[in-house]
Every structure is written in C-alpha cells, then in structure tokens.
Amino acid sequence: KFIITIDGMKVQCQKGDTVLTAAKRADIHIPTLCYLKEINEIGACRLCIVDIEGQRNLQPACVFPASNDMVVKTNTNQLRKARKNVLKLLLSNHDRECLTCTRSKTCELQDLAEEFNVDEVPFETNRTNHTIDDNSPSIVRDTSKCVLCGRCIAVCRDMQKAEILDFTNRGIDTQVTPAFNDSLVETDCISCGQCIMACPVGALKEKEDIEKVWDAIEDEDVHVVVQTAPAIRTALGEEFGLPIGTRVTGKMVTALKRIGFSKVFDTNFAADLTIMEEGYELLNRLETGKNLPLITSCSPGWVNYCEIKAPEYISNLSSCKSPHQMFGAIVKTYYAEKNNIDPSKIFVVSVMPCTAKKGEAARVENQVNGHKDVDAVITTRELAKMIKQAGIDFNKLNDSEFDNPLGEYSGAAAIFGATGGVMEAALRTVADVVEGRDIEPVEYQEVRGIDGVKEATIKLGGKEINVAVAHGTKMAQELLDKIAAGEKQYHFVEVMGCSGGCVTGGGQPHVSSTIDTDVRVERAKVLYKEDNIQKVRKSHKNPFIQKLYQEFLQAPNSEKAHKLLHTHYVP
Ligand code: HC0
Ligand code: SF4
C-alpha cells in the first residue's frame, strides 16, 4: 500500500491501481468516454487526461499506473480546455440530431457536453461518409453517431469472442465496421447486442418492432397476447428513474394492461414447462449416455454462436425450444382451443431482455401448423418507450397480477434470468424425479454468482453428475475447450450468451459506464427474491403445468410435446 496526492487529497493506493481507479476511490470524478472497466482500457479518447507532476505531457488517467508519492491534478484550466477541445472535435464529426436519437438522455457524449458546458461546435468538418446498416433482424448500426471509442470492438472480441467489429481506414476516414464493411447479417454476428450495451452513444441500437405491436393492438380482429421474460421485471424500473435492483413486477403488469394487450401472461410459466421437457431430456440422455453433456439452448445468442463457431456441439444442444417460443406454441394451440379463438387471429408479443430473441422468433423452425410461435419481440427498452408513448405514469401505477393460467409460475422459473438459474431450476426438478421424494433445500448456491464458469457435482440416485455453467460466449468457448480436452466429463451444461445471463442482455436498459455497481448482481438479487416469495419453488409442482400435461400434452417429451415444444438447429 502507498499514498498518492490527487487535487491536494491523500489517497491510499495499492499495486495495480491506475490514477483513475485511485481517484474513483476518493470520489474524485475524472471524465471518461472510451474507458470500460476491465474491457477497454486503452487511453484513446484522451478525456481522462490529468496533470502528473514530473511528466512532460498530460497523461490518460485510465491507463497511467499510480505510484508512491505521485502528485496529480485533475482540475486545471489547461485540463478543462483540453477536454473541451476533445469534445468539440468529436462533436464536429458527429450527427448531432439528439432530439430524434434513441440514446437522448442516456448518451454519455451528451452528458459530457453538458458537463463541460460545450456551447458551440466551431470546427464544422466535412463529416466522414457514413453507413446505416439495418438489415439484421436484431441490430442497427449507424456510423454517423460513432465516436470511435472502440468499446463495441472490445466487447465483441474479448467478452463474446465473436470478433465482428474493428477499426477500418485511417485518419478522418476511420470507422468501426465489420470486415469489408459487410452488413451484420452477412457476418458471423450472433445478435447478442452486447455491442449496443457497450456503445456510449446512438451508433448501435436494436431494430425496433414497436409499430408492429401498436398496429396489432389497434386491430380489433386480432387477439394480442403479451408475455414478459423473467429478466424484465428487475430492470424496467430503471427506464423510469428507479434504482438498479428495483422489482417492478406488479407495475409492469398494470402498464401492459393499460397499453391494451388482451392478455398479460408470463414467460415464467413456460420456463417451468421448459424444465419439464429439458429435465426429462436430461434423464433420457443420462440413461442412454448419448450426446452428453446436454447443453441448454434457451439463449439464442449462444445458439447462434454454437451453430457458427462450435457446430460440433450442435448434437449436445437441448432440442427444447426456448421458453418464450414454447409459450407461443401453447397459446396458439391449447389456449386457442380452450378459448375458441382462431390461432391465425392471435398475435403473440414477447418482451425480452435480448436482441437475439428477435432473430430466434423469425426462424422457420419455430412455427406450429404454419403459425409462428411468436409474432413480435420487443426489448425492455422498447417496452419502456411504449409505456411513455401511451402517457402512462409508470411510477404511480398500482400492482396487478398476471392473467391466468399462463401467468402462474414457480420460484424455479423466476430465476431463469440470472446466470445459473436454468441449471438450478432443472436440478430442483430432476433431483426430485430421480430420488422420488421432495428434496430440500431447494437452493444450489454453487451455480449462483458471477464467476465466468461455475461447476458442481450433484448426487443423483446414487450416481454423481457433473454440471457447469458459463455466461458470455467467450467463457462458453473456454468451457467447450475444456470439454474437448477431456479434462472433465460433464453431464449437464448451462450456457447464456451474455455475461450475467438475461438480466444483462442486449435489450436491457442502458447503464452509464461511469457507475461502479455490478448490475449483474443487483438485478439478479431481485430474481432470487422473487423465487423466495413463491409458495411453489419447483417447476413440476406448478399446478397449472400439471394440468397442462393432463389435459393436453400427456407427458414430458410425448409426441405432442415434441411437435409443439422442440426444435432443431442448423450448422
Ligand atoms: Fe431469458 Fe428465457 S431466461 S432466455 O435468459 O430460458 O431473453 O429473462 O425470457 O425464452 O424464461 C431472455 C430472460 C427469457 C426464454 C425464459 C429462457
Ligand atoms: Fe458482436 Fe454481439 Fe454486436 Fe454482433 S451483436 S457485433 S456478435 S457484440
């Protein structure tokens, strides 16, 4: 441990600290733009420059190591002017149509311009030719908004191991694009949307489907059913100024009813259904010893990755459709029959924390009797926009309950949105089935938390099974490499495409890169709380799931269940 002085204050430091991390600890704010903690620490934008005694030039605080007795100034006339000039230069090559930009109010460049009181953009240059690429079903790229911070490049390469984006050209013509300036759909992009979450401005956003949904609601001939993913209720409040980690389940349901959906159901119901199908699929594979480990397939970013980058594992993927697809298939068959509604007049909307779900819903495999399981997917951010458009004062709403019976769920379903949640939910059911009794406790702490790969060995019917959980496709690849090397035999593996799982999917509310909270942890806490307060905490004990099998599906993995609830993959 050693001491440095920042703006006259003594700050205790340890080895490995940069000037930026030291300043943060002392609550001294140094502005940043290209900096993303542990992901993009390249000192490129030069907004975090500081004056260090003994150094000839101003130095970027995000990469400059703190050392004993160092004296730093972060707030001088020279620094303020230099930073303001950096911002002016950035703005001179930026499409400044803030009023119509999706990131207005969550834009980090806008915040900085305000912070530094930038009141003019004097160097109007000939702006770099720009590209708008909106061919992907999930992601829209607009280089006229790009500030060349490189954050999307780093996330795509280092967190997702997808390596789609890079700097191209030089000088004033520099851009961030896929190779050969191809459209994202022509590349191996997995549509995870993590580049959107990394982008400080409006250069990357989801392809919006809001108008499709409004049109369906307006059409009196159409019965519009909405379902919400487990992870929406833990993040939607942030769009209305509520703190990270606020549970808004009841308000969300009220808002959806006010928007005008005919029925407000819950993807959690179908998460319980997935556990039934996938649990029995696991038991079957354990018995035959074929295609082990079974690997979960509910995260479409991960499925895209597997199909493109690791096709040798396609036969390991669970054949189960993801919960929201199963949900759509049940609505257009069981629910349609029961309520005497023509399935072609039903429009299913999924509210998802995920951009890849848009592409998943569009897959031709995900249909039953010629009807798409899901007709439109909107992200948490898009739902927030709809609530605002509808003039609903979200924070003043009372709580409501989901509609029955497709809104009833167990605690096991509630935790799907956090990394390890699907694994834990499956173990709760599989253990009971194998042991033939009600096993307590229901929690599997080993698979919780945000370590990149988590492992556990579980005793099942006198045998031991090895399970592993990975989140973020880079960690998934590392786990696959381990499997390939034969280091350990796994029986069941959960993979989620995004670090933290769905709670930090590419469709979730933007969080400023300057805050230190681990959003993955805070949002997951809400889901574990939701689990704790449920009377039923195991999927197979959800009475409505039991009824669905009795009345309609017969048994898990039955022929009918296979036709409606399972899918296949394309190498
Ligand atoms: Fe997820 Fe899902 S848990 S993928 O993470 O399995 O997106 O929240 O909706 O479908 O249930 C996302 C979240 C879901 C699905 C569920 C699964
Ligand atoms: Fe890379 Fe994912 Fe963005 Fe595609 S969506 S460019 S894979 S980060």
Automatic annotation (TrEMBL):
**SMART domains recorded for this chain?**
Fe_hyd_SSU (SM00902), NADH-G_4Fe-4S_3 (SM00929)
Q: Where is the 4Fe-4S ferredoxin-type domain?
A: 137-167, 180-209
Instruction: Say where the protein is mainly found.
Output: membrane
**One Pfam family this sequence matches:** NADH-G_4Fe-4S_3
Cell compartments where the protein resides: Membrane
Question: Keyword set for this entry?
Answer: 2Fe-2S, 4Fe-4S, Iron, Iron-sulfur, Membrane, Metal-binding, NAD, Repeat, Translocase
Check the record and name the SUPFAM superfamilies matching this protein. Answer: 2Fe-2S ferredoxin-like (SSF54292), 4Fe-4S ferredoxins (SSF54862), Fe-only hydrogenase (SSF53920)
Q: Which residues form the 2Fe-2S ferredoxin-type domain?
A: 1-78
The 4Fe-4S His(Cys)3-ligated-type domain is annotated at: 78-117
One GO MF annotation is: iron ion binding
Q: Which InterPro entries match?
A: 2Fe-2S_ferredoxin-like_sf (IPR036010), 2Fe-2S_ferredoxin-type (IPR001041), 4Fe4S_Fe-S-bd (IPR017896), 4Fe4S_Fe_S_CS (IPR017900), Cytosolic_Fe-S_CAF (IPR050340), Fe_hydrogenase (IPR009016), Fe_hydrogenase_lsu_C (IPR004108), Fe_hydrogenase_ssu (IPR003149)
Q: Which GO terms describe its cellular component?
A: membrane
Q: Which GO terms describe its biological process?
A: ATP synthesis coupled electron transport
* Cofactor(s), by name: [4Fe-4S] cluster; [2Fe-2S] cluster
Q: Which family does it belong to?
A: Belongs to the complex I 75 kDa subunit family.
Name this polypeptide is given: NADH-dependent [FeFe] hydrogenase, group A6
Q: Which organism encodes this protein?
A: Proteinivorax tanatarense
